[in-house]
Amino acid sequence: MKIMMVCFVLVCFTTRSFGQSAPVENYKVNPYTIKMKHKRTAARLLLAGGITAIVIGGIISGENATYDYFQYPSLPTNINQRKTGDAVAYAGIGCGLVSIPFFISAHKNKVRAMSIVFTEERLTMPNSKTINSVVQPVFAIRLAL
Predict the structure, then answer these.
(1) C-alpha angle 17/21/23, rounded to 5°?
(2) Averaging pLDDT over each range in 22-26, 79-83, 106-110, 138-142, which range is the top one?
(3) Which of 17, 54, 86, 109 satisfies CB 3.0 to 4.6 Å to 92 for a cystine?
(4) Sign of the CA dihedral running 14, 16, 17, 22
(5) What's the pLDDT score for residue 1?
(6) Closest CA to 37 of 89, 140, 113
(7) CA–CA separation, 40 vs 27, rounded Å?
(8) What is the 3-state secondary structure (H, E, C) of the chain?
(9) d(CA 60, CA 90)
(10) Rounded to an integer, what distance in angstroms lies between the CA atom of residue 47 and that of residue 104?
């Protein structure tokens, strides 16, 4: 009977006690995650716009060219149209090159977001009658060792 009573008291105390909980990782509210998503979206839009401009420039540049199967294609009859097509294609190449720093910055922000963790820790708040545990959000930094 004495052993049962001790086990019962132990069970009661262990259910009311607190310990360090596993971190709840919430990346959606992290400012670095939001920044990473914006930079990645901008990079994808610049890259898609650049590819589209290259294709449209190639179509404009070679629209009036005459093709001979045994020779290289001749120049378009309208030289201004070829210059315009080349300019659009070069602008597309520029947009594609400008998107590279945005991709790099988005990756750096993703790494920073993965190192910051928002957890919820239990804090004991003693009252006059009972001991209450309150869950508080805590800011933590994850270090790679």
Answers:
(1) 165
(2) 106-110
(3) 54
(4) positive
(5) 80
(6) 113
(7) 16
(8) CHHHHHHHHHHHHHHHCCCCCCCCCCCCCCHHHHHHHHHHHHHHHHHHHHHHHHHHHHHHHCCCCCCCCCCCCCCCCCHHHHHHHHHHHHHHHHHHHHHHHHHHHHHHHHHHHHHEEEEEEEEEEECCCCEEEEEEEEEEECCCC
(9) 13
(10) 13
Instruction: Write down the pLDDT at residue 126.
Output: 73
Q: Which amino acid is at 101?
A: P
Residue in the structure block whose two tokens are 């910051």: 116
From CA 38, how far away is CA 30, in angstroms rounded?
13
- For residue range 107-122, what is the model confidence (pLDDT) as tens digits? 999 888 877 776 777 7
pLDDT in tens, 119-141: 777 777 777 777 777 777 777 77
Which residue would you say has higher pLDDT here, 121 or 66?
A: 121
Q: Cα–Cα distance between 143 and 39 in angstroms, integer?
A: 25
Cα–Cα dist 1/37, whole Å? 62
CB atoms within 10 A of CB 120: 13
